Amino acid sequence: MSCYAVIRRSATLLTILFPLAAHAANPVSWPIAVQINRADTLVVWNSPTAIDLGQMVWEYDYEITKVTGTVSLPFGGSVTQDITGDIDPADRIGSGETRTLPTVLLDESLADAGSGTTATVRVEVLPTGFGKLTVTNIMLGSVTVPIFGSRPIQRINLEATVGLTGFAFGDYTRDGLVNAADYSAWQTQFTTPAVPLADGDGDALVTAADYTIWRDAAPVVLAAVSIPEPTAIALLLVASCSAALRCSSAMRGG
Ligand SMILES: [Ca+2]
Ligand SMILES: [Ca+2]
Q1: 207: domain range?
Q2: Longest dimension (CA), the chain
Q3: CA of 175 relative to ligand 1 center, distance in Å
Q4: 106: CA distance to ligand 2 center in Å?
């Protein structure tokens, strides 16, 4: 069984085990807003939509865009301070791609040295395609308020965005279409491991198997009529070389 068939079969099994959500979409963009109170030990957020699981590869990005700490004042009222800038951007912002879902996009212990606040933030895509954010190991520190001095943070508000875009099998240019341009991309990258976009089966190589994936996904007319298969290309090359050799021999003989 080819890797492609295994991938397809795995996707089918996932569909059976975890019925596709009614709101499965592609791409998805999930705005997240959670409130973490001082007494909390666990905060969970679930996405309203699910990413389509039947794709070749997914590109993702995430960013924790805003973190604020709120303190209570002795005689009523409160003060909120933005502490986003105190968190290392390398822990807050990231991107990448994955060929398998479910997956964990972010699992970081975020720390604000100024207030002594720490928490572990985990963002993952579940087997159902839904996103989930989990905040654990919550330790809220203190901030200094003019006149009132150091005050314990009572509440953290965290805002973030998570985006995923899936690309179909055979879409080697990653433009949302499976067409002749993807065949050209495969042809250019054939046997060139350093250029992995035309790697349909995820084996880090661009081979004839990836052509088959494109052919099976391309419009029938395009796949059947316009494009010679790799074996046909190879035969043409062999035939051309043989003809050239015959011609060369004939010239020497003549
Ligand atoms: Ca394409
Ligand atoms: Ca491949």
Answers
A1: 180-253
A2: 109
A3: 5
A4: 27
List the structure tokens of 104: 């964990």
| 24/149 same-domain check | yes
Residue at a domain's end among 132, 167, 202 = 167
Q: Tokens standing for 203?
A: 């084996």
When divided into structural domains, the chain yields a total of 2
**Beta-carbon-side half-sphere exposure of residue 173 (alpha carbons within 13 Å):** 13
Is residue 29 domain-resident? yes
Are 9 and 132 found together in one domain?
yes
Per-residue pLDDT tens listing for the chain (254 residues): 444 444 444 444 444 444 455 569 999 999 999 999 999 999 999 999 999 999 999 999 999 999 999 999 998 999 999 999 988 899 899 999 999 999 999 999 999 888 999 999 999 999 999 999 999 999 999 989 889 999 999 999 999 999 999 999 999 999 999 999 999 999 999 987 666 799 999 998 999 999 999 999 998 767 665 566 665 554 444 344 334 434 344 444 43
Dist CA 124 CA 10 (whole Å):
19
Ligand 1 centroid to residue 228 C-alpha, Å: 18
**Residues 148 and 246 grouped into a single domain:** no
Q: Which ligand has the shortest distance to the CA of 192?
A: 2
pTM of the model: 0.79
Q: How far is the CA of 27 from the centre of ligand 1 (A)?
A: 15
